[in-house]
Design a protein that fits this description.
Elements lengths: L1 H10 L1 H10 L11 H10 L4 H15 L5 H5 L3 H6 L4 H15 L13 H8 L7 H10 L12 H12 L20 H8 L6 H13 L10
């Protein structure tokens, strides 16, 4: 991790300022297994507290750690009772069914290239590219992932790299509409971070939670 952080600090003055304010990188990882992906589905589009409560009830019902058969034996009524929506219940059952049938094989994921992992995971209903990116970063520990669909990363890039008028008085009192970067812009900004874009993104997420000194500008 130290090698990655040193590279990022040398490669990008803006990111260096963020790293110095945030401090050491403390990425937390989960094992690359069925349980972790099922948990990711439960957490989709929910705040942390609500998701944790629902997941705790769900795991108590289906079994902890989660296994495909533990989910497949549950009824829709049981899943609704723990707070899962009909849509998420469908996603979880599809994940369990495809894993049980061998269509989704967690054992081979560590050996696959990033794009192949994304293709393999997105065959499951409810698992899109964003969820696959999170799995790559926080379970398979891939160091060079850039989640171009992540709102937090896009917002942080806008704040630190694209909002050139930040820190100067506005000529208008009207609130400016935020235009978040598109994938091409994100790739351009993140080029200097390779091969440690995952670590850079972690710092961008943390920068939104940390009161940074203004402004973090290029030198």
């Amino acid at each position: 991790m130290r090698k990655a952080v040193n590279h990022l600090k040398k490669a990008d003055p803006v990111l260096r300022a963020i790293i110095e304010e945030v401090g050491p990188c403390r990425m937390e990882f989960s094992p690359p297994e069925f349980h972790s992906l099922a948990e990711a589905i439960v957490y989709q589009q929910l705040n942390g507290t609500a998701a944790a409560t629902i997941f705790k009830r769900f795991a108590a019902l289906a079994g902890d750690p989660l296994k495909p058969q533990g989910i497949l034996c549950l009824t829709d009524e049981q899943l609704r009772a723990v707070g899962l929506s009909k849509q998420k219940s469908t996603y979880l059952k599809d994940l369990a069914a495809k894993t049980s049938e061998g269509l989704l094989d967690f054992r081979k994921l560590p050996e696959l290239a990033d794009h192949d992992v994304i293709e393999h995971l997105t065959q499951v209903k409810g698992i899109g590219v964003w969820t696959a990116h999170m799995f790559l970063m926080f379970t398979l520990r891939r160091p060079n992932v850039l989640p171009t669909g992540d709102f937090g990363v896009r917002m942080a890039m806008h704040k630190h790299y694209l909002d050139r008028r930040r820190g100067s008085p506005s000529k208008s009192k009207r609130k400016r509409k935020i235009k978040l970067p598109n994938p091409a812009q994100m790739e351009k900004i993140a080029k200097a971070w390779e091969p440690y874009r995952s670590i850079a993104c972690w710092y961008l997420w943390r920068s939104l939670d940390t009161k940074l000194m203004e402004p973090a500008v290029r030198k």
